[in-house]
Amino acid sequence: MKYFEVFFTALKLGCTSFGGPIAHLSYFHDEYVTKKKWISAHAYADLVALCQFLPGPASSQVGMAIGLSRAGLLGSILSWIGFTLPSTIILILFGLGISTLDVTKQNHWLHGLKVVAVAVVAQAILGMGKKLCPDKERITIAILTSVILLFFSSAFLQVAILIFFGIFGIFFFKSSSDLPHEPLHKGNKSIGLGFLVLFFVLLLSLPFLRELLPNQTIKLVDSFYRAGALVFGGGHVVLPLLQAEVVPSGWVNNDLFLAGYGISNAIPGPLFAFSSYLGAVSSVEPNGWMGAIICLVAAFLPSFLLIVGVLPFWETLRSNPKIRKSMLGINAAVVGILLAALYQPVWTNAIFSPKDFALVIFCFLFLEYWKTPSWVVVLATVLISFFIY
């Protein structure tokens, strides 16, 4: 049944996708594009580009969109649950003090996970580059994008670059058979508009409700919904926003915040799942499991409303010849964004010695040429890291 397939595929990714948002997109590409062929490389790149424009966690939004395309609205929800569930459970248990393993001290295998993420991202960039940058013009766009972002790193600059090369594509790329269009989701525009309206209604009304009704739950929902709705650039960017919401207010002390931040970077799945940890350790009620669920849903709800609301209109736009030419430039820029991220933060956080580089090329060999499943390479790298570090 397609619902179970969507859920368990996302669950597997939630258990094995280490390395942060950019690495997640690489794992998604390997699973959804290469293996299951649920979406083509061009449609996937279009989707990644769209999620770069939208606020919220890009990798989670891509997963929701693929779930929506595969199995409708329920498929989108199941995809989010599957991908988010493993990290959420780990973070809540850690927050409640149930976990007996201090993962922050397991430097050998944590470092191994960072190293294998380099190989996974490199493989994804190579695969996307071959399909999305087949000529010198688009290769140049990818390299220029990468160089600019390596000199001036900014989430808003990423959006500006995508817009610029999208406009460039309209004027300088010609219509040809190189402009494939694979439908993602034939959504209902009326329903999509309703979701978009709800997104803005909640964003604007929650701060007023917070002032009118002295209810702690409303305060939590407002803080986490606003953080999820206004952050551009992925999970790492939301962390300082959440810190500004929960530490000065006294809900979570700074030591607890930093401890949760540390483990969030050491486990698979979306960094936005950190919101469940904050809800669990909050000093005010609701906390524990109930607080964790409330904060988790509030943080991810804006992303869900936006992606479900935008996709029906996006599908119409993608069928327009000018937009499709524009996407050639945007997709090439997306490859450049990933290429820049391969160095910073993926490479710089993992490769410190010849051993690290040797392990990367070993992982890349099995991923790219032996076609070994990524989860097998991840587990093998963890085992190897116990002996070489």
UniProtKB/TrEMBL annotation:
GO CC aspect terms: plasma membrane
Signal peptide limits: none
One Pfam family of this chain: Chromate_transp
Transmembrane segments: 73-97, 109-129, 141-171, 191-212, 224-242, 289-314, 326-346, 358-388
Main subcellular location: membrane
Keyword field: Cell membrane, Membrane, Transmembrane, Transmembrane helix
GO MF term list: chromate transmembrane transporter activity
InterPro entries: Chr_Tranpt_l_chain, Chromate_transpt
Entry membrane topology: Multi-pass membrane protein
Subcellular location as annotated: Cell membrane
The keyword Cell membrane appears for this protein: yes
Family statement: Belongs to the chromate ion transporter (CHR) (TC 2.A.51) family.
The protein, known as: Chromate efflux transporter
Originating organism: Leptospira bandrabouensis
